[in-house]
Amino acid sequence: MAFIDFTQKNMINIPEIDDQHRNLFAILNKMHAATSEGMEQSAIVEIFNDLIRYTVEHFETEEIQMKQYDYPKYAAHKKEHDDLTNQAIELQKLFYDGSATVTFELLDFLHQWLNDHTMGTDTEMGEFLCEQQ
Ligand SMILES: [Fe+2]
Ligand SMILES: [Fe+2]
């Protein structure tokens, strides 16, 4: 069983965004597997960097679509994206200078965040976008 499963509950019915979410879940699974297997920290941090890079791209996709259709909850949604991005950048700094390592606690936090955000904030956005298209 995968660490995080992409299920019907995570689908928001916007194919481009669902594909990106599926990819995000896959990268998080890869990061979890690497941690469980006791892979070298530098290799795990590489996967974390991929996750952040892809997440930032994904957030941009959503933000462009929200702006395009004047989504009324854009600001609150973007704040959730920005808060996570800022936290991730802070962590990246700690990983680079060796003062922190990837832990299962971090993986659990990302698991929770992705699930909550896709099933809550993104689903709400998806309902709005589906009505516009
Ligand atoms: Fe999303
Ligand atoms: Fe989002």
UniProtKB/TrEMBL annotation:
Location of the Hemerythrin-like domain: 15-126
Species per Swiss-Prot/TrEMBL record: Pseudodesulfovibrio sediminis
UniProt record similarity statement: Belongs to the hemerythrin family.
NCBIfam families per the UniProt record, alphabetical: bact_hemeryth, hemeryth_dom
Matches recorded under SUPFAM superfamilies: Hemerythrin-like
KW Transferase (keyword) present: no
CDD domains: Hemerythrin
Keywords, alphabetical: Iron, Metal-binding, Oxygen transport, Transport
Pfam families xref list: Hemerythrin
Name of the protein: Hemerythrin
